[in-house]
Amino acid sequence: MSEVIVPERTSVSPAPIVAWTPLGENAILVRSACDAIPAKVPVAVDGNPRNRAQTMVLSWRRPGAEPLAATGFLCLAPAPSVDNSGTGALLIGRPGRPLRLILAAKPQPLQTFLSELAEDAGQAFPSVVDGLLEVLLTGAPNPRRLRAVAMLLQTVARPGGFVEVMGALEGDGIFLQGWTSDFAAGRLKLLIAHGGLSPAHLEAGTFERGDLGEGARGFFGLLEDCQVQQPGEIERLYFRGSDGWRALEVYERYVLLEPITVPGHLRDGLARGTAPQTTTDRLRRASQRFDGRDTVCLLEEPVRAGIDSVTVVEDTGVLIIGWLFDPERRVDAVTLRSGGQSCAVDRLWTRVQRPDVTAAFMEDPRFGPALAARRNSHGFIVFAPKLLPEPGQPLHLAFEVQGTGPAFLPLEPNRAQARRALERVLGLLDPRSSTANAVVERQIAPALQAAEIVPPRAVETLDVGPFDAEAPLGLVIGLDHRQRELSALFALLAMDPEVRPLPIAIAAPSESFDRVGAEARRLARFYGLSVRLVAVEGVEDACDALEAGVRACRFQTVVLLSGAAQIRMPGWLGRLERAYRARGGQCVASPTLLFEDDSIRWAGAWLEGEGASRRIANRFVGYPLDAVGNLGPMEVAAGASECCVLSRAAFIEVGGFARNYFTTAEKGLDLCLKLRMAGSPSLWVPDVEVYAVDDIETAAPHAGALARLADRTSFDRRWALAISNMKG
């Protein structure tokens, strides 16, 4: 047939008024009748032949109608102008004479339009609807078209089976299982009713079921490219069978699978069913997911793994200690997973010697020959930052093994606070080994620095005497968990006329508050001191207690005194305060700190070296006290937090002590550098002398060297660049 041309001019003649309904913003559905019309015609909008489009026409015979209206038809047309500037006419080109139609003044609701269509089409309605569905589903779908499709499908779709089992597969769609007699295995287009209607694909396999009638088969597969996220949203599924549209109903008592069990159901389906190779490959890849089992132990390859401990460090990440036996290097990657989170731990871990693993497999005939090289580096320690198990999502390791795909190892984590969890790891390491240093630098230090540790918090205060929390000057004493002798300290405070009238805040861990508080109350009353006792939660060391004590009062100027410090002579505070005032209160004034044998523990922290090699060092450590001579107050790189005078406002402004260190040494150094950067440099006052007990800060004393290495590593990462550019 030659192309039908819509003429530029058409004589005006009476035209029928036709029913129509909108389908989206740019199209309408029109119903009318004529004597004859082809399956594809051009249509001009508002009588303008230049505004035209090709459209498919669906027609049916109308028995008993007049010859000029013997053929009913349905077509899509471009929507008329929104601003009503058009004529409201459609011009349809057809052989012979074009057909001119006048759109009704108001569109019909879709349901009304379809009802009248069914009445007019009679027995042809199902085939008309089937063709209309094909037209509506061609091209990009829009909500209004899909709503029309949903109404049509409810009318014409015949029963096609049931969905009996469903389950979500994280990131890969929804698993379906049921029965049908109307589609073959492979990739199938579907429409899903879920309140609305949306397209999807089903990668499906089929299997025989003895409980079904002739021609019906079981099916299983994955629903993909789907807007539906949860199985419970699915109401019905429509698909095009060999003889028209069919509906898969969701069985009222369908089985809802836990996501972790879905891979196993896919594997069962593949084992008993059939599908085209592309579908089989797709479903097999999806089935290779963690299902809660240890599948590493089932491998035929010489690969085994074990876990010693898994700790979820609060708000920080996951710390894992374990081993991987892989003498032939079959494992290409190891990934930690929980829900949608993952971390490639084999790129981060530190391998450690595990001769016990070697010994365990040496006598096993399956693995012994692979151990000819006698490698012992089977162990690993790794910190996975910012990966926190999601509620209801299991934590596991995935091993990519050459030739077999992934294998899985489920993990059962404990939870712990960052510092305590990492201290336990330090206790497992030999501080003399290079491996221990690598673990500290690559795992422990980054984990501690990444930790979001809750700051210490004052939970209770108790005042003894007329305590003035708003005093211009006040003393804050911070105690850690170790037992301290308070009687000598209180006696020395009471004997010093410059200290005796000051308000004194004593901050102690809440766990030891009863014991410390009772002793402090007795001594405060005996000596007539004004004391506030502060019970603190979250104390790891004296710096934590000092911080809570500072925040529990509102002194303008605070004197920090660690529980490790011991006063050596009266007048110490007056001289420190005068040096502080001489600098306008814009500094941190610290005394000389001594060991108990009167040798120097701290006499100023000084900048040494130049550029990238510049560092902060304590020059006089171990020297006799006479080595400093009769020096006057002088500015240094950093002060000593064990004993100092500083502005409370400055302390609060810089955020107080950092909690991401094991020892108080780096905490104090970090604080003083923050204050220096904020305009409060450190001042050393040599003629004021205070004892400071050299305590081991970690829970495992033999790990003290590693704790100091971790702190130094963390400190250098944070401050090396700033120190290299400091003047002085």
From TrEMBL:
InterPro entries listed in its UniProt record: Nucleotide-diphossugar_trans
Protein name: Glycosyltransferase
